[in-house]
Amino acid sequence: MKDFIIPWNDADMGTPAKTGAPVTLTIDGAAVTVPEGTSVMRAAYEAGITVPKLCATDSVEAFGSCRLCVVEIEGRRGTPASCTTPVAEGMVVHTQSSKVQKIRKGVMELYISDHPLDCLTCSANGDCELQDMAGAVGLRDVRYEPGDNHFDPTGTGALSMADAKRREGDGNFRYIPKDESNPYFTYDPAKCIVCSRCVRACEEVQGTFALTIEGRGFDSRVSAGGAMDDFLSSDCVSCGACVQACPTATLQEKSVAELGTPTRSVVTTCAYCGVGCSFKAELNGDQLVRMVPYKNGKANRGHSCVKGRFAYGYTEHKDRILSPMIRESIDEPWQEVSWEEAIGFAAKRLKSLQKTYGRRSVGVITSSRCTNEETYLVQKLARGVFMNNNTDTCARVCHSPTGYGLGQTFGTSAGTQDFDSVEHTDVVIVIGANPTDGHPVFASRLKKRLRQGAKLIVIDPRRIDLVKSAHIKAAHHLPLRPGTNVAVVTALAHVIVTEGLMDEAFIRERCDWNEFLEYAEFVSAERHSPEATEMLTGVPAETLREAARTFARGGNGAIYYGLGVTEHSQGSTTVMGIANLAMLTGNIGRPGVGVNPLRGQNNVQGSCDMGSFPHELPGYRHVKLPEVRETFEAAWGVTIDPEPGLRIPNMLDAAVDGTFKGLYCQGEDILQSDPDTKHVAAGLAAMECVIVHDLFLNETANYAHVFLPGSSFLEKDGTFTNAERRINMVRRVMAPKAGYADWEVTQLLAQAMGADWDYAHPREIMAEIASTTPSFAGVTYERINELGSIQWPCNDSAPEGTPLMHVGGFVRGKGRLMVTEYVATDEKTGPRFPLLLTTGRILSQYNVGAQTRRTANSTWHEEDVLEIHPHDAEVRGVKEGDFVKLASRSGETTLRATLTDRVSTGVVYTTFHHPDTQANVITTDFSDWATNCPEYKVTAVQVSPSNGPTDWQERYNEQAEQSRRILPAAE
Amino acid sequence: MSPEKMVTMANQIATFFKTQPGDDQLDRFAAHINDFWEPRMRRQLLDHIAAGGAGLEPLVIEAAGRISEPVE
Ligand code: SF4
Ligand code: SF4
Ligand code: SF4
Ligand code: FES
Q1: Average pLDDT estimate for A569-579
Q2: Of ligand 3's atoms, which has the minimum distance to the CA of residue A272?
Q3: Of A400, A387, A452, A458, which Cα lies nearest the Cα of A426?
Q4: I need a surface site. Which of A52, A142, A600, A912 has the fewest CB within 10 A?
Q5: Distance A46 CA to ligand 3 centre (A)
Q6: How far apart are CA A721 and CA A793, in angstroms?
Q7: Which residue intervals define the domain 4Fe-4S Mo/W bis-MGD-type in the entry (chain A) (predicted)?
Q8: In this complex, is the C-beta atom of B21 within 8 Å of any C-beta atom belonging to chain A?
């Protein structure tokens, strides 16, 4: 099962697909039927005929500038460009004739006359459309004399770079040297044919508008940013869309220049964010050359962001630990040992802990970065081998309120739409999410829709990029004070109900009318009016009213939200409030609408689906239900504990209390990612067996006794499930560097503890999931390979999966409008801590940064900085770039400040990508009332000038350094 | 966990259910605790209530009889 060679066609069809009434025409004697609006070029491709082309590619609209694609059409004069000519009924097209051949040859000759003849040493050799086209049109000679050109640096008539190197000359003002400023790709203007595919890709696909064509005619050049900019200093976000679109070596991955053109490719799934982009991993042998977004990927439709596209270097980083290690206690150095010894050591310790402290004294943390199959096994280890329900996942600290809130209102925690749905949206609310940084490819698709005229409402304390950026402007920005989400969402509902903007027919049909009446009475109360809540939320009443009207009256309304909603003491209540808004306005159950949680990590959705939570077996079924336990008891041959287990914060509390002693933590770094670092450290330090299973010695490993090396997503088979419930295939492209894939390691541990597990391949694990979990009943690897991906539920009634939820009825029957009373968080500002800190993330870095920090992505974000309003900075004597101390009642840390009015006065903001900053030393142990999801987004803090790291940071670094010592393996 | 933290958590849950319409707030509160609190957390809560329930919302104390005894 080593290689999965893609069988699916992803060739360039020249122009984008269209939808429309069928039109039949004849091309080179063959009849072909295509949707109205399709170009003649694409229709020809459908008929199996490729028309030569240079400036057209199917990721962007045709432009018609190169004239290589000319054809003859009967009854029409001249030779129209096939890329810009739409098909017509009965049209008769000839793609080859002596006339068009002559034109094409002439065009190519002109192009080549201003192109260096370095093909043999060019990094795009074998992967260049200019080369291909020269061949295709039969260009055999260039009759132009050397003259004015863009490629010869010497200006002496050299025909190639190789030639120019051997010449001396006083220069060519048209020659621009290669721009190597971007760490991942180069721009070599000498090879540019000015087809503008890159410019259009940056606009249409990515939506950044970083590129322009400067100048006219022979003077025109591609330019990133302003006159003084290079790619790095421009607005470019390094998504790679232009590189993908470029037909020549002008925009080219540095890795290809270094390693050569790839010879095979494997389709797999990005291991970063919850968008779940499909990629082709392109390789030579087992050496990865580049990752190219896969056109048939249904989440990304051929687009990508800088993380998935370029930031895979961590998989080969020297920091990766490839040998298992153990130690008696955490003040000792690590000892490298064999797998057998490490697993034996771990199993023995866990068993003896359970003997001494009881069955429930050990537990697991599953990973939102590992595959479904791996997660399933880790929770099975807790339930079927440890015999308790002490299993949790880092989704606890991000989207657990989504599970609870949507479960209560709709009957399932599932996001309701697929990403394609955004193409049908008329008005979008983005609340507590920053898609351009957190979910970039979704953001590009959203921006595309906004440019087509959809309206946008942003509810966020910060002026995120979506509020205003190139060709995008939010209709309304509600800059609320952190911690007042429920008040704002309820006030929106107040306006909708009191102004009679709700969709009564929908509510009568799909919800419980009596519950609605109760809800309407609650929400109509004066205390929920925007005027009454304005003082509290900081959102001007009139702005809020207008936003509510825009949403309720604007056609298809969709709500997208992120951790700015969930990570609050009222996170679950806000999720319910969002569900209320969707139900009130009838925005559920069709394309273009819905409630869409944007999941953080790649497999947050999957890790929740797979029963990682301590109260739920796979498929979100409570452990108290005997019929559910019976299913798994029959499959596993064990008795399952009917009591809910400990959640991560509860595990740490119990550890400090001395009743929780052992932890197997797969692919998570709770010491860096969880709130109140000191408390996490105390909990870990109190345990007697901490097993960390990861790629790197992460921060948590400072407190570990056993380290098991993990495998990257390139080294194993399995599935990830993205934010649209889409199960995507992860395919092994190389052997695990440490010897075992993660699922095999969990299996070894289970076996060492006495279990009779015997899985030979992840497909067998998926088969077990399908046989025990109704929403996965129809899922098999064969089926996923056949369909490309599957959105669960997938079963007999939905054999191809379910793109949209709640069509025609809610999963729970009637939708339930929930009363959402605002309750202020206990985390309040006061004289000692007068500012509110909120946290977030940045495009180039991912989560705790363990992966992205080990790539050139750090070029964009070397350290975490504190955003502070100039006014707040001034009164504290803080200037741009100063080191400041950030203190809360939990702790203090230092970092650099940057002054910006993106945050309001009274609010400061930072990211948590770097362990040196330890932003979570500051965050408190307050959490969501229903799920214990920590309140990351609101912490009362003070900021003051500082001249260096705090004592805590220094002590922490010292401990970390001590703890990372490794002794070589004994002979 | 510290008694203060447990009291805060229990009160947060009580505060939500208190605002809900209907007359089953006690049952819904207790069901939430039974569904999500691990036995040793419920033990700590019940012991705290037995010892007078300092700091707890009245609803929590009233619902005590509906919280299931942890099973070992
Ligand atoms: S990498 Fe992306 S953002 Fe940068 S110029 Fe190319 S298309 Fe635009
Ligand atoms: S850089 Fe590439 S895509 Fe852009 S205009 Fe030049 S040749 Fe065309
Ligand atoms: S990080 Fe997210 S948006 Fe970027 S390529 Fe990966 S899945 Fe796509
Ligand atoms: S491909 Fe049609 S004009 Fe360039």
Answers
A1: 89
A2: 1
A3: A452
A4: A142
A5: 31
A6: 12
A7: 263-319
A8: yes
Rounded Cα distance between A344 and A667, Å, is 20
Specify the pLDDT at position A5: 45
Q: Minimal CA–CA distance to A430: which of A484, A475, A469, A481?
A: A475
Task: Note the pLDDT tens digit of each residue in A477-495.
Answer: 999 988 899 999 999 999 9
State the Cα–Cα distance between residues A34 and A208, nearest whole angstrom. 32
Q: Do B38 and A646 touch (CB under 8 A)?
A: yes
Average per-residue pLDDT for chain A: 89
- The fold for domain A400-597 equals Dimethylsulfoxide Reductase; domain 2 (3.40.228)
Q: How many CB pairs under 8 A join A and B?
A: 64
**pLDDT (0 to 100) of residue A528:** 93
Q: Are A187 and A224 in contact (CB under 8 A)?
A: yes
Is residue B62, in this structure, part of any structural domain at all?
Answer: yes
Q: Would the pLDDT of A225 be above 80?
A: yes
Whose C-alpha lies nearest to ligand 1, atom 4?
Answer: A236
Class of the CATH-defined domain A835-959: mainly beta
- Does ligand 1 lie within 6 Å of residue A441's CB atom? no
Q: Any idea which of A361-365, A743-747, A915-919, B4-8 has the lowest mean pLDDT? A: A915-919
pLDDT band at A852 (very low <50, low <70, confident <90, very high): confident
Assigned domain for B18 exists: yes
Q: Is B35 on the interface with A (CB under 8 A)?
A: yes
pLDDT at A583: 93
Give the domain A22-136 fold. Answer: Ubiquitin-like (UB roll) (3.10.20)
Contact B68/A at CB under 8 A: no
CATH fold for domain A161-316: Alpha-Beta Plaits (3.30.70)
Chain B neighbors of A654, CB-CB under 8 A: 1, 40
* Identity of the residue numbered B26: L
Spatial contact of A456 and A334, defined as CB atoms under 8 Å apart? no
Statement: residue A756 has pLDDT above 80:
yes
What is the domain range of residue B33? Answer: 3-66
Lowest-pLDDT range of A844-848, A956-960, B51-55 = A844-848
Mean pLDDT of A12-32: 94
Q: What is the CATH number of domain A327-391+604-791?
A: 3.40.50.740
Tally of domains within chain B: 1
Residue A898 pLDDT level (bands cut at 50, 70, 90): very high
In a domain, B53, yes or no: yes
- From the CA of A598, the nearest ligand is 3
Closest atom of ligand 1 to A245 CA is 7
Buried b (16+ CB within 10 A) or exposed e, A457-468: bbbbbbbbbbbe
Using DSSP's 3-state secondary structure scheme, residue A328 falls into coil
CB contact under 8 A, B38 and A643: yes
User: Quick one: which of A278, A398, A406, A144 has its CA closest to A713?
Assistant: A278
Q: Which atom of ligand 4 is nearest to the CA of A41?
A: 2
Ligand 3 environment, Cβ below 6 A: A 270, 272-273, 275-277, 300, 304-305, 307-308, 440-441
Q: Which residues of B touch A615 (CB under 8 A)?
A: 35-36
Helix or strand or coil: residue A215?
Answer: coil
Chain-chain contact of A624 with B35 (C-beta, under 8 angstroms) = yes
In chain A, domain spans = 22-136, 161-316, 327-391+604-791, 400-597, 835-959
- Under 8 Å between Cβ of A669 and A698: yes
Q: Report CA(A105)–ligand 4 centroid distance (Å).
A: 14
* Region A444-451 average pLDDT: 94
Residues of chain B with C-beta less than 8 angstroms from the C-beta of A926: 8
Asked whether residue B17 is assigned to any structural domain, the reply reads: yes
Q: What are the pLDDT digits (tens) for A33-88?
A: 999 999 999 999 999 999 999 999 999 999 999 999 999 999 999 999 999 999 99
ipTM attached to this prediction: 0.94
- Angle at which helix A571-584 crosses helix A400-409, to 10 degrees, equals 40
